[in-house]
Amino acid sequence: MKRMFACLLSLAMLLALIGCGGSSSQPSNSEDSASSKEIVIKYPTFQVGANTAAPVVAKLVEEFNAEYAGKYRIEVEDVPGDANYADKIKVMISSGELPPVVYGGGYKLLDLALQADLVVDLTDAVNADPEWKAMYNETWESTDCRDGRIYASSSEGQLIGYYYNKELFNQAGIKPAETWEEFFDNCDRLLAAGITPLAMDTADGAWCTQLLLGAMIAGSGDEGLEFMNTSYPTNYNIPSVVDAIAKIQKLYQTCTTLDANGGAYENAANNFFSENVAMICNGPWMIGDFSDTSKTTEGFSDKVGVATYPGGFVYDAPIEGMFVTKQSDPALEEAGIAMVKFFTSPKAQQTALETQGMVPAGATVEITQTALDAFPLLADFLEQASVCEKRGNTLTGLMVPGLEDTFSAELPNLASGSDGLCHRQPCDLICYNFAERAAECSSAARFPPHSTDLPPPRRWTMKQRNTGWIALFLAPTCIIFLLIFAIPLVMVFATSLFDYRLLPRTFEFIGFSNFIKLFTQDAKFLPVLKNTVVWIAIHCVLHVALGTVLAFILYKKPHGWKFVRVTYMIPNIISQSAIAMIFLNLYNAQYGALNSLLKAIGLEHLQHNWLFDTATAFPAVTMTWFIFAGYTTTLVLAQCLSTDESIIEAAKIDGATSFQIDRLVMFPLVKRMIGTTVIMAATYMLQMFSMIYITTGGGPGVSTANLPLYLYTTVKANNYGYANSIGVVIIIVGFITMTLINRLFGMNKED
């Protein structure tokens, strides 16, 4: 029974997730096989378009298709953005259906797929090819091997330091620091010269900030260096990490741009390209961007220098490579192995090196003079890195799968200076949740065996005449209702009583433990619940009131009333995502219209990072939807205009004023329509997601998070049972809200 229940729930949730994250790209080669012997390899990737690796990937795809013409063919599926790509693959892992080849990158996709038993063992294939085997060195094996078996193959290394603007350094009279004390002194001297020292970020894993933090940890001493060379550490609350996080907080507050809090890598990179900051942490793949005139000005590359981190530390670990996934067709797996071998071959790595300046992962790939001449920064950095004794992996490479989401969630709190929900030391804003998530990800039980003992389907016999035909026509609707709404709803309630995870698979009855944890142990839940309730109240009272007042004005048909009605409705017919982007630009801390206006009128001291300051984030998000009450205005206005005018005339004859007519005549007549708009408003707020997700992501901390967003982040953390308990709370809040509105407005009373 548990088995069948789990299967049905997985189906319902995966359908919802795939609907949000894009369609599955699982290849089906039956049609291709029928029409041709050529095997098609569907390959989703974010390395397209403006991505720095796009030219290399495009060239390799072209060369592979030419070499294997008539046998194998790669079809690239564009996935815009690496975060979207990672989310898409994670959803596909949950469904058990993956494309033949997956690029692991820095997202722990290999480990997630291994936990789901979806990865092909490449050991025999690699051992059978001496050239392929020879490329595997110790660091490569640590990245792509598990328990002595080879599961992936890397093509690019991570030899990472930081870049600096030589002109800005000269203006401040400084050079790259050799110690961390000198590094912070350089920051102070840059500030004194009117130059912002660092490009930093918080969103999408906070790549630039992670690199800086990891380097500080490694440079603190033996303890920190050991930490940065430990896979899946569970104890983050150690002096080296504590001290480094405290320093990162100081840098957020004094040494970076206003838009760093809430900004992603793209923001940080743009600030460096625009010469708004003096330094940015990143790897060799960025070198090609310095001469890309679509991103920066011509000649910018001549201004850029590169350095290793203070204390002689450099990141030196291959990027998690490509892996082949298990398919129903063995020939498709063989095609995947051929593709991985081709894309990670010495020739392919040489191409990436000489095209984009990417450091090869293979031990046998030579750094050619052609590449060094084309990328002088690479040559300079390789020379500096050759004498570095301290080496380690990146924080992303060390974290358990999904932990980077916790990192992104906690950094805005750190940046804004909040003490956090637990009122701990700054480090605990991250360490507490890190430790909790690490523990969660390390334990799991297996699903019980699947049960196939299902009762035979009940056959429909149309013995009745009229009732039979009615039932027949109603059946499709009832079936759809059961499949899409009723059964998933029951499952949400039922599985909220289980510890239910997909990766690794767990399905264990725990009673009301999820709810107890929600209300007594989860420090984030009650603030999130409060935000949701407050927003419902604001939307149901102030928002509806605003729309109703405007409707009462317009029904009197003042000059231009039709134009106002149409204009006021426009924001409501634009997608939430578009509106969110408009306000994201309006509130932009660096270039936004609001801060620009304040600066123009001499009020620079009032400039703010509106969306990522704990004092302003909540009202700023509220304003993204509060003023757009078009639906309320339209519906109430329609009801007002349909009112019998004789009633109004009678009231005027009796001496009623305009205000009295509105209050004593019109309002009772449109009361139920107003009640309808209140229900719509409450429902809208219980479904609110994209507006918050795009603008703040629920941050800083959870100051702008609501229940749907918190449910989403919990699902991403692979805790489906706990997520469903949040879903139950949403349903209960919705039921209570609808009941109160119905009673208040007498919605169920007969006329």
Question: Could you please describe the fold and organization of this structure?
Answer:
The protein is an alpha/beta fold and 751 residues long. The chain folds into 3 domains: 2-152 and 320-360, D-Maltodextrin-Binding Protein, domain 2; 158-318 and 393-442, Periplasmic binding protein-like II (D-Maltodextrin-Binding Protein, domain 2), CATH 3.40.190; 517-745, Orthogonal Bundle (MetI-like fold). The chain is built from 34 helices and 14 strands. Strands 6, 7, 8, 9, 10 and 12 form a 6-stranded mixed β-sheet that branches. Strands 1-2 form a two-stranded parallel ribbon. The longest helix is centred in the middle third of the chain and has 30 residues, at 466-495. It starts with a helix and ends in a 6-residue tail after the last helix. 45% of the residues are buried.
Helicity level: 55-70%
Number of strands: 14
CATH homologous superfamily heading of the largest domain:
MetI-like
- C-alpha Rg (nearest Å): 30 Å
